[in-house]
Write a structure and sequence with these properties.
CATH architecture: Up-down Bundle
CATH class: Mainly Alpha
Mean pLDDT: 92
Order of helices and strands: HH
CATH topology: F1FO ATP Synthase
Low-confidence stretches: none
Largest sheet: none
Strand content: under 5%
Distance between the termini: 17 Å
Number of strands: 0
Helix content: over 70%
Number of domains: 1
Shape: elongated
Structural class: mainly alpha
Radius of gyration: 17 Å
């Protein structure tokens, strides 16, 4: 197999981290909304934990995107 084909497959797999991160962020947000609906007095703590988790998830997506760009430009 041609190495450029393997690079394209690797770049496509790296881009899939963005899809997985989007799904993960949606699930985390929905669970946070459910938690606030059940315990409104804990909304401040839930929001701070949610923001931290979303930042970590977003950084994973950005890393995947950067790797995909590096592979595509190789």
């Amino acid at each position: 197999m041609d190495p450029s084909g393997l690079i394209a497959i690797g770049a496509a797999l790296a881009v899939m981290t963005g899809m997985a991160a989007g799904i993960g962020m949606g699930l985390a947000t929905s669970k946070a909304v459910e938690a606030v609906a059940r315990q409104p007095e804990a909304s401040g703590k839930i929001n701070s934990i949610l923001i931290l988790g979303l930042a970590i998830t977003e950084s994973t997506a950005i890393y995947g995107f950067v790797i995909a760009i590096l592979l595509a430009l190789k």
